[in-house]
Amino acid sequence: MIAEAGSFALILALALSMAQVGLSAVARWRKSAVLAGAGEGAALAAFLAVAVAFAALMHAFVTSDFSVANVAANSHSEKPLLYRVAGTWGSHEGSMLLWCLALTGFGAAAAGLGRGLPQGLRAVTVATQGLLGVVFLAYTVFASNPLMRLAEVPVEGRSLNPLLQDPALAVHPPFLYAGYVGMSVVFSFAVAALVEGRVDAAWARWVRPWTLAAWSFLTVGIMLGSFWAYYELGWGGWWFWDPVENASFMPWLIAAALLHSAVVTEKRGALPGWTVFLALAGFTFSMLGAFLVRSGVLTSVHAFAVDPTRGVLLLMILGLTAGLGFALFAWRAPSLPQGGVFAPVSRESALVLNNILLTAATATVLLGTLFPLIREAATGEAISVGPPYFNLTFTPLMTALLILLPVGPLLAWKRGDARAGTRRLWWAFAVAVAIGWVVFAAVAPRKGLGAAGVAMGAWLIAGALAEIFERVRLFRAPVGESWRRLWGLPRGAWGMTLAHMGLGVFVLGAVFETAWKIEAAETLPIGGAVNVGAYHVSLDAIRAVEGPNYEAERAAITVTRDGELVCRAAPERRLYPAGGQTTSEVGLCYRGMSHIYVVLGERREGAAQPVWLVRAYWNPWATLIFVGPAIMALGGLVSLSDRRLRLGVAQKTDGKRREAKA
Question: Which terminus of the chain, N or C, has less C-beta within 10 A?
Fold first, then answer.
């Protein structure tokens, strides 16, 4: 009965979303506060109904109710509780229900936190969000119902993909979906602004916190997915330009561009059309990601399903929603205000260049992701686009962006002074060059590009600090005044500094791990060893172990340096009998911020005794790769706590726009 109650709640949510659309649309037409309140109530009720359906599906997984088709296909009674819970969103159907939960949740939040918005804008936003809910709930109810019963109940389920049975993957989808679907509110705000003809500084201020929240969730979700790929897949890397990795990265890039563009619109009233365009594009790329992951048009360990029929439906949803949004933009764009005028050297110009580089980088990722699909559809020839393409196209664009990033905040609005901005950054530039030179001269082997990358990371960190020092007038004002200014800085400023510093930390980790990584692979008998850099990795023993739902060979690995014990690792090669799948569990040794990474491969019969393929990596400063995005997400949360950026806070603006001080 619980599954049936969940199915009913899902259908009820669809009906409530329809009511949300109708009531909010009529409220805008008749300017009725009562009907607007009813539409907002329907938004909250739709979210509660989807939450009931989600709870029913989770109950089915936790109790191993194999009469539910989704549970039978993706769970097993011997699976640990954490992975039975994670199985709720570990399939195509379950993930779409999670998508609907996030979508209606953000709709309810937009309705509840938008009390300070103009009535017409709020009503159209709630109606648009409800329309998105109708589309995706209808898809879930009629094409991907996760609570369908089986006529013949199996004794045991087929289990979840072993690669997904991991703590990072248990929490990765909720964060990622919160980011994906968080952009839906921004999309709805853009549609409402176009309908109302109101794209101004106040609108940009209302959009920014929603974008910031979605961007922060996406940052955490991508970081968790990258960390999972790093230690679960066993290939020694953290990013492979996999199409599904790209599917989450593209909306992140667009959201980053939107954050910077919205600042220009808010502070100077400039770029209104471009900001609306990015707001529409952000959720469009999120829907594109949903299509790529679930349509079967690509092969990836991240993909949820290989189902062309449902893929066509998702493509139709993408075409319908994005098409209507951009058609409205094309119709209304000529009537949008032109915005403020600014000089070529100004903070506005720096942010415009920032946007050009981010959107160009997004375009290169989009081309590299879709070109193999287009080529195969047109010619029947299967090709792949891998890291060489992205290194040649994406890296130069991002390098230019990273050079520019610390400069923009130190330029004045409207008309800046390039020479004064350069003077404020001279010490940051000196620190970056000095660190790069030390790395080039001291770290063997010498690598010019690696040293330049380290200098780039140091430039971002020092540049972010320089912006804070300039705000508090450090060394140019009495200590007491600087201290007072420091404590009086708005949280939004601290959030921006943390985000830029986190990016610098990530760049340092990525450069060190890429440029100075060392790899070794040998087939070893018991007692054999392989050297990786300055470390001696020996295979001491192999023993069979029984897990809760798997069988494994576990290696006892000893890592030494100059005869002294560094650490012990226990990589495994697991077999999951329920699905007949084999996976590798990595052994990680932490040496400060660096890792010794060991993978146990297949057993082979040697001439005298069995041998195992052992791969070992020395990954210097790899921890920074994951710490950096965490700092960036923290910066987003700190900015969200700023009263000026709090969700739902609507500030009145003067008739004359006040120019923000640098």
Answer: N
